[in-house]
Design goal:
The protein has helices spanning 2-19, 189-194, 202-209, 213-220; strands at residues 77-82, 96-102, 107-112, 118-124, 127-132, 144-149, 154-157, 162-167, 173-179, 187-188. The protein has 4 helices and 10 strands, in the order H-E-E-E-E-E-E-E-E-E-E-H-H-H. 17% of the residues lie in helices and 25% in strands. The strands form 2 sheets. It has a 5-stranded antiparallel beta sheet with strand order 1-2-9-4-7, with no helix packed on it. Strands 6-5-8-3-10 form a 5-stranded antiparallel beta sheet. With 229 residues, the protein is α+β, with helices and mostly antiparallel strands. It has one domain: Sandwich (Jelly Rolls), CATH 2.60.120. Bound molecules: manganese (II) ion. Manganese (II) ion binds at residues 111, 113, 118, 157, 163. Manganese (II) ion is lined by residues 111, 113, 118, 157, 163.
Protein backbone atom coordinates (compact mmCIF):
# COMPACT_ATOMS: atom_id res chain seq x y z
CA UNK A 1 0.00 0.00 0.00
CA UNK A 2 2.73 2.43 1.03
CA UNK A 3 4.82 1.65 -2.04
CA UNK A 4 1.86 1.94 -4.38
CA UNK A 5 0.94 5.30 -2.85
CA UNK A 6 4.52 6.50 -3.31
CA UNK A 7 4.52 5.46 -6.97
CA UNK A 8 1.21 7.26 -7.59
CA UNK A 9 2.41 10.36 -5.73
CA UNK A 10 5.66 10.39 -7.74
CA UNK A 11 3.76 10.01 -11.02
CA UNK A 12 1.40 12.85 -10.10
CA UNK A 13 4.31 15.10 -9.12
CA UNK A 14 6.18 14.31 -12.34
CA UNK A 15 3.06 15.14 -14.37
CA UNK A 16 2.45 18.36 -12.44
CA UNK A 17 6.01 19.57 -12.92
CA UNK A 18 5.89 18.84 -16.65
CA UNK A 19 2.78 21.03 -16.96
CA UNK A 20 4.06 23.79 -14.68
CA UNK A 21 7.12 25.05 -16.55
CA UNK A 22 7.46 28.60 -15.24
CA UNK A 23 10.39 29.58 -17.44
CA UNK A 24 12.65 28.15 -20.14
CA UNK A 25 13.39 24.40 -19.83
CA UNK A 26 16.07 23.57 -17.26
CA UNK A 27 19.56 22.73 -18.55
CA UNK A 28 20.69 19.11 -18.33
CA UNK A 29 24.40 20.01 -18.27
CA UNK A 30 26.61 22.87 -17.03
CA UNK A 31 26.06 24.87 -20.21
CA UNK A 32 25.01 24.63 -23.84
CA UNK A 33 26.66 27.59 -25.54
CA UNK A 34 24.51 28.54 -28.52
CA UNK A 35 25.63 28.15 -32.10
CA UNK A 36 24.17 31.34 -33.59
CA UNK A 37 24.05 30.05 -37.14
CA UNK A 38 20.82 30.73 -38.99
CA UNK A 39 21.95 28.27 -41.68
CA UNK A 40 22.36 25.40 -39.20
CA UNK A 41 20.47 22.43 -40.58
CA UNK A 42 19.13 21.30 -37.20
CA UNK A 43 16.16 23.12 -35.70
CA UNK A 44 15.56 22.66 -31.98
CA UNK A 45 13.56 24.44 -29.28
CA UNK A 46 16.32 26.93 -28.52
CA UNK A 47 19.77 26.77 -30.11
CA UNK A 48 22.09 23.84 -30.73
CA UNK A 49 25.13 23.52 -28.44
CA UNK A 50 28.66 24.46 -29.37
CA UNK A 51 31.23 21.70 -28.86
CA UNK A 52 32.11 22.06 -25.13
CA UNK A 53 35.80 21.53 -26.00
CA UNK A 54 35.69 24.72 -28.08
CA UNK A 55 33.89 26.82 -25.47
CA UNK A 56 35.83 29.55 -23.69
CA UNK A 57 35.12 32.49 -21.38
CA UNK A 58 34.23 34.76 -24.29
CA UNK A 59 31.09 32.67 -24.89
CA UNK A 60 29.82 33.93 -21.53
CA UNK A 61 30.76 37.58 -22.02
CA UNK A 62 28.97 40.64 -23.41
CA UNK A 63 30.58 44.06 -23.22
CA UNK A 64 29.18 47.53 -23.71
CA UNK A 65 26.02 47.77 -21.61
CA UNK A 66 27.53 50.83 -19.90
CA UNK A 67 26.77 52.77 -23.11
CA UNK A 68 23.31 54.30 -23.58
CA UNK A 69 21.22 53.19 -26.54
CA UNK A 70 20.32 55.69 -29.28
CA UNK A 71 17.20 57.50 -28.06
CA UNK A 72 17.02 59.92 -31.03
CA UNK A 73 13.79 58.43 -32.35
CA UNK A 74 10.03 59.13 -32.23
CA UNK A 75 9.63 57.27 -28.92
CA UNK A 76 12.62 58.84 -27.16
CA UNK A 77 13.66 55.45 -25.79
CA UNK A 78 16.01 52.59 -26.64
CA UNK A 79 16.05 49.00 -25.42
CA UNK A 80 19.44 47.27 -25.56
CA UNK A 81 18.81 43.56 -24.99
CA UNK A 82 21.43 41.03 -23.93
CA UNK A 83 19.96 37.64 -24.75
CA UNK A 84 20.98 34.35 -26.36
CA UNK A 85 21.37 36.11 -29.72
CA UNK A 86 24.28 38.27 -28.56
CA UNK A 87 25.43 36.28 -25.50
CA UNK A 88 25.48 32.62 -26.66
CA UNK A 89 26.34 31.31 -23.17
CA UNK A 90 22.76 32.15 -22.09
CA UNK A 91 21.40 29.23 -24.15
CA UNK A 92 19.20 26.94 -21.97
CA UNK A 93 19.73 29.08 -18.86
CA UNK A 94 16.32 30.78 -18.85
CA UNK A 95 17.48 34.31 -18.20
CA UNK A 96 18.42 37.53 -20.00
CA UNK A 97 18.85 41.25 -19.50
CA UNK A 98 18.10 44.61 -21.09
CA UNK A 99 19.19 48.18 -20.59
CA UNK A 100 16.51 50.79 -21.29
CA UNK A 101 17.37 54.45 -21.89
CA UNK A 102 14.84 57.27 -21.93
CA UNK A 103 14.98 60.86 -23.09
CA UNK A 104 12.91 63.27 -20.97
CA UNK A 105 9.30 62.14 -21.67
CA UNK A 106 10.61 59.16 -23.60
CA UNK A 107 8.33 56.12 -23.73
CA UNK A 108 8.86 52.37 -23.87
CA UNK A 109 5.42 51.81 -25.43
CA UNK A 110 2.85 49.17 -24.36
CA UNK A 111 4.27 45.74 -25.17
CA UNK A 112 4.42 42.17 -23.88
CA UNK A 113 7.09 39.50 -23.61
CA UNK A 114 5.45 36.23 -24.64
CA UNK A 115 8.04 34.11 -22.83
CA UNK A 116 9.18 36.12 -19.81
CA UNK A 117 8.44 37.89 -16.59
CA UNK A 118 10.37 41.18 -16.32
CA UNK A 119 11.84 42.69 -13.18
CA UNK A 120 12.87 46.31 -13.68
CA UNK A 121 15.17 48.47 -11.58
CA UNK A 122 15.56 52.21 -12.09
CA UNK A 123 19.12 53.53 -11.90
CA UNK A 124 18.41 57.12 -12.80
CA UNK A 125 15.34 59.29 -13.36
CA UNK A 126 11.61 58.94 -12.70
CA UNK A 127 9.44 56.43 -14.56
CA UNK A 128 5.66 56.03 -14.61
CA UNK A 129 5.19 52.30 -15.22
CA UNK A 130 2.25 49.95 -15.38
CA UNK A 131 0.75 46.68 -16.56
CA UNK A 132 -2.76 45.51 -17.41
CA UNK A 133 -4.35 42.26 -16.24
CA UNK A 134 -5.64 39.69 -18.71
CA UNK A 135 -8.93 37.76 -18.79
CA UNK A 136 -11.24 39.93 -16.74
CA UNK A 137 -14.32 38.19 -15.39
CA UNK A 138 -17.55 38.94 -17.32
CA UNK A 139 -18.61 42.54 -16.71
CA UNK A 140 -15.21 43.56 -15.36
CA UNK A 141 -12.59 45.70 -17.06
CA UNK A 142 -8.89 44.94 -17.58
CA UNK A 143 -7.39 46.20 -14.34
CA UNK A 144 -4.38 48.54 -14.58
CA UNK A 145 -1.59 48.58 -11.96
CA UNK A 146 0.73 51.60 -12.04
CA UNK A 147 3.50 53.12 -10.00
CA UNK A 148 5.92 56.04 -10.19
CA UNK A 149 9.48 54.72 -9.77
CA UNK A 150 12.63 56.58 -8.76
CA UNK A 151 16.27 55.52 -8.64
CA UNK A 152 16.63 52.28 -6.70
CA UNK A 153 13.00 51.21 -7.10
CA UNK A 154 12.24 47.73 -8.45
CA UNK A 155 8.98 46.72 -10.17
CA UNK A 156 7.88 43.40 -11.66
CA UNK A 157 5.78 42.87 -14.81
CA UNK A 158 4.26 39.37 -14.80
CA UNK A 159 4.83 37.14 -17.82
CA UNK A 160 2.82 37.92 -20.93
CA UNK A 161 1.00 41.00 -19.60
CA UNK A 162 0.92 44.31 -21.50
CA UNK A 163 3.19 46.87 -19.80
CA UNK A 164 4.92 50.22 -20.41
CA UNK A 165 7.50 52.63 -18.95
CA UNK A 166 7.26 56.41 -19.40
CA UNK A 167 9.88 58.93 -18.31
CA UNK A 168 7.93 61.67 -16.53
CA UNK A 169 11.05 63.46 -15.31
CA UNK A 170 12.83 66.44 -16.84
CA UNK A 171 16.07 64.50 -17.23
CA UNK A 172 17.19 61.25 -18.83
CA UNK A 173 16.27 57.96 -17.22
CA UNK A 174 18.09 54.61 -17.15
CA UNK A 175 16.67 51.24 -16.15
CA UNK A 176 17.84 47.65 -16.28
CA UNK A 177 15.47 44.72 -16.69
CA UNK A 178 16.00 41.05 -15.90
CA UNK A 179 13.86 38.66 -17.96
CA UNK A 180 13.05 35.02 -17.21
CA UNK A 181 13.89 33.70 -20.68
CA UNK A 182 17.00 33.42 -22.83
CA UNK A 183 14.80 34.82 -25.62
CA UNK A 184 11.87 36.75 -24.08
CA UNK A 185 10.49 38.11 -27.36
CA UNK A 186 8.67 41.43 -27.54
CA UNK A 187 5.30 42.27 -29.05
CA UNK A 188 4.86 46.03 -29.27
CA UNK A 189 1.10 46.39 -29.36
CA UNK A 190 0.73 49.33 -31.79
CA UNK A 191 3.40 47.95 -34.15
CA UNK A 192 1.90 44.46 -34.20
CA UNK A 193 -1.70 45.63 -34.69
CA UNK A 194 -1.27 48.63 -37.02
CA UNK A 195 2.12 47.90 -38.56
CA UNK A 196 1.95 44.19 -39.37
CA UNK A 197 3.31 42.97 -42.70
CA UNK A 198 1.11 42.46 -44.61
CA UNK A 199 -1.47 44.72 -42.93
CA UNK A 200 -4.43 43.26 -41.07
CA UNK A 201 -7.64 43.87 -43.03
CA UNK A 202 -9.02 47.34 -42.07
CA UNK A 203 -12.43 45.65 -41.73
CA UNK A 204 -11.05 43.60 -38.85
CA UNK A 205 -9.50 46.61 -37.10
CA UNK A 206 -12.48 48.92 -37.72
CA UNK A 207 -14.75 46.46 -35.94
CA UNK A 208 -12.21 45.57 -33.24
CA UNK A 209 -11.53 49.20 -32.28
CA UNK A 210 -15.09 50.45 -32.96
CA UNK A 211 -13.90 53.48 -34.93
CA UNK A 212 -14.34 54.95 -38.40
CA UNK A 213 -12.38 53.29 -41.20
CA UNK A 214 -10.47 56.57 -41.77
CA UNK A 215 -8.99 56.28 -38.29
CA UNK A 216 -7.71 52.77 -39.08
CA UNK A 217 -6.36 53.89 -42.46
CA UNK A 218 -4.53 56.73 -40.72
CA UNK A 219 -3.05 54.43 -38.08
CA UNK A 220 -2.01 51.79 -40.62
CA UNK A 221 -0.26 54.43 -42.73
CA UNK A 222 1.96 55.55 -39.82
CA UNK A 223 5.57 54.50 -39.36
CA UNK A 224 5.73 52.35 -36.22
CA UNK A 225 9.21 52.72 -34.83
CA UNK A 226 10.81 49.66 -33.18
CA UNK A 227 12.86 50.73 -30.15
CA UNK A 228 14.32 47.22 -29.59
CA UNK A 229 17.76 47.10 -31.12
MN1 LIG B 1 9.18 44.90 -21.12
Amino acid sequence: MGVRLLIIATAVLALASSFAEASDPSPLQDFCVAVNDSKAAVFVNGKICKNPMEVDANDFLFRGLNKPGNTSNPLGSAVSPVNVNNLPGLNTLGISLARIDFEPYGLNPPHTHPRATEVLTVLEGTLYVGFVLSNPAPGMKNKLFTKVLNAGDVFVFPEGLIHFQFNIGHSKAIAFAGLSSQNPGVITIANAVFGSDPPISPNVLTKAFQVDKNVINYLQSQFWYNNNN
